[in-house]
């Protein structure tokens, strides 16, 4: 059976409303305008430090505020779980994939504290036999090292990565593994311009796509 590794934000969960709420509390304190949900989605993907840098750039806050705002963002991040939801059909798809004997892992650029907090809050932690976070290794996605480590944690078998973003597509390409692209996440680039093996807009289709990858 296969080793299937998932991205988190924008793939399994829609966490943008919680991340937007933290950002807007910080921006209000700085006297800067709020960011929209669309802007928030656009800033997610390369981890917390890059999110804060993009948020600052969008509101003209200086580089000298980065360390302070990043620290405040991370401090708030672990308790920011209440507005986050699992995308429709995710749990049923994971049930099917696990019942077929596939092993599941997670590879996210979100730091470990908030990753475990939101997984616990949503009852998802036990689904994953291995979890690689943005601060688990010196390298972050799109460096393929965390994805390789996630697959290594799942033993042997064909490898498949499932994600939503430009970062995930590049990571999969650099790791040379099949990539299933969820199109309803935080991607900004047209699907046909991103590396992918199959694209899907509904988790009900995921088990079939995994089966298609495995017969190739
Ligand atoms: O925290 C981020 O910026 C991205 O998280 P993800 O890798 O789960 O999409
Ligand atoms: Mg993502």
Automatic annotation (TrEMBL):
Functional pathway: Organic acid metabolism; glycolate biosynthesis; glycolate from 2-phosphoglycolate: step 1/1
NCBIfam families xrefs: HAD-SF-IA-v1, PGP_bact
Cofactor: Mg(2+)
Domain of life: Bacteria
Protein known as: phosphoglycolate phosphatase
Pfam family, one: HAD_2
PANTHER family linked: PHOSPHOGLYCOLATE PHOSPHATASE
Protein species of origin: Lacimonas salitolerans
């Amino acid at each position: 059976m296969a080793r299937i590794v998932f991205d988190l934000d924008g793939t399994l969960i829609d966490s943008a409303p919680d991340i937007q709420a933290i950002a807007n509390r910080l921006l209000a304190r700085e006297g800067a305008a709020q960011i929209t949900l669309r802007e928030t989605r656009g800033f997610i993907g390369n981890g917390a430090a890059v999110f804060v840098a993009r948020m600052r750039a969008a509101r003209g806050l200086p580089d000298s505020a980065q360390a302070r705002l990043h620290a405040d963002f991370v401090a708030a991040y672990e308790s920011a779980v209440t507005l986050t939801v699992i995308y429709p059909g995710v749990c049923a798809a994971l049930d099917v994939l696990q019942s077929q004997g596939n092993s599941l892992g997670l590879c996210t650029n979100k730091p470990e504290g908030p990753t475990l907090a939101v997984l616990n809050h949503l009852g998802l932690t036990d689904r994953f036999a291995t979890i690689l976070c943005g601060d688990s290794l010196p390298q972050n996605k799109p460096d393929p090292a965390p994805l390789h480590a996630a697959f290594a944690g799942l033993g042997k078998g064909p490898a498949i990565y499932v994600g939503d973003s430009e970062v995930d597509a590049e990571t999969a390409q650099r790791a040379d593994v099949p990539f299933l692209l969820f199109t309803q996440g935080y991607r900004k680039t047209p699907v046909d311009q991103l590396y992918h093996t199959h694209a899907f807009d509904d988790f009900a289709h995921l088990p079939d796509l995994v089966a298609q990858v495995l017969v190739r």
